[in-house]
Amino acid sequence: MRPVGHQERPMRLIALIMSAVMLASCGINDVPDKKNNLDASWSEVQNQYQRRSDLIPNLVNTVEGFARQEREVLREVTEARASASQIQLSVDDLTDPAKLAQFEAAQERLSGALSRLLVTVERYPDLKSNQNFLALQSQLEGTENRIAVARRDYIESVRIYNREFMVLPDRWVAAIFNGQYEKAATFEAVPEAQTAPTVSFGDDG
Description:
Blueprint: H1 8-25, H2 30-66, H3 71-86, H4 97-120, H5 125-128, H6 131-163, H7 170-178
């Protein structure tokens, strides 16, 4: 067998390099595509939380019309809504677990306040049968379902995005073409979210 000549070695090296580049090019767009999906998923999470926030003023006003004595609960909902609205995360903040945790805590506080408000409605039969309230309650329930779906989709997008930088050869391709990687943060359920609020009506008839 004829030994490999000096001219053939560079050609083989070039061929190997070209093959590697061609293989790598198949995944060049993977990271940007997955990042776009991640950003879109987060936008939908924020969109649904905003939808819930927009429903709350009308809900509070409707309840107040029937149950003015529930001032403490109404005030808690209003304050929780204001607090949650002040915390906005951009797509650039999705790699910061502390910021996401702060956002989540504010939304959970609002969820708890809304739960307590809706429980107090049981004291007011006229309110429970009010058409405006029933429509708002239905919209709110639908929004909560949409929030759950949006959060689930975001968590899955985070998983897919982060995996891109963990498996081979995707990890090599991402390092070559996309540079420094920061792991995207995901939702962590707070302990309070696992327990339904306890409400006692005392001797209220």
